[in-house]
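Box 3.1 A note on notation
Throughout this textbook, protein chains are presented in two layers. The first layer is the amino acid sequence; the second is a token string describing backbone geometry. Keep the layers aligned when reading.
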Amino acid sequence: MRQYRHIFMLLIIVYALFVINVPRIWKGRSRGLATIIFYWNAFNALANIVLFLSLLPDFLSSFHEGFYSSLCLNAGLYKNKRSGKAIFTFHISKVWELLDTVFMILDGRKTNSLHVTHHIIISTSMIYSYQHIGAMARWIAITNLAAHAALYSYLAAQSCVLKRRTCSARVISGIQMAQFPICLFGLIKIRQFLNARKKCETNYNGLSILIYSSFFILFTRFYINKYGKDCTSRVFKSDSKGLANFSSILRLWNVNLINERWGWLWYEDL
């Protein structure tokens, strides 16, 4: 990883320049891009599923001494041919996922600063943490791969089947958010093991807690602002519809009462 680090960093810099400058001049949509985006999402969904399944046996077997062995002991994570390649590929996958934003811009969609910042920070940290992160990598990888497998599968289905957002979008967003508290839990446990002077094969850094905490808070706010308002508006819409229906029923009831009353008077007059 170290020998390719300068290449990956160059790609991240190019990505940042692209995101800053291209949206100013690119206003349309590229023809045929929808098909490319579908295959891109399908590829990433398949890649994340394969990597997840490659790391799952190591992750499950790492609990032979509870959380301690899973979080602090590398065991065969890097030495095993299957899990070693999977964990390496997972780290570099954060660089190729930068194309997500590129396709969004070329498709004429707007990007938000949280999306771009998240991509830059995560891809950079993955490049520099590969040699030091140790056993904690299995937790970060397994949670992220599971979340992204669901995300890219949804995006691929959305582009060719669903055609529009459904209620599944908030579920997928919730899954994305879940990886942050899970990894925060792991980082806190590592701190506890280190305080207890146990051997821990990971380069613990308080900056990791800061990064995961910050993203968890930011993504939670984004989720509430995006889906909380939708829920509120739907409640108000449903309430307004209910009130409208109720008032229409009252009006009909009043009309019926009036008709019955006038009918009764008309009958008496006869």
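The chain has a mean pLDDT of 79. The chain is about 80% helix and 0% strand.
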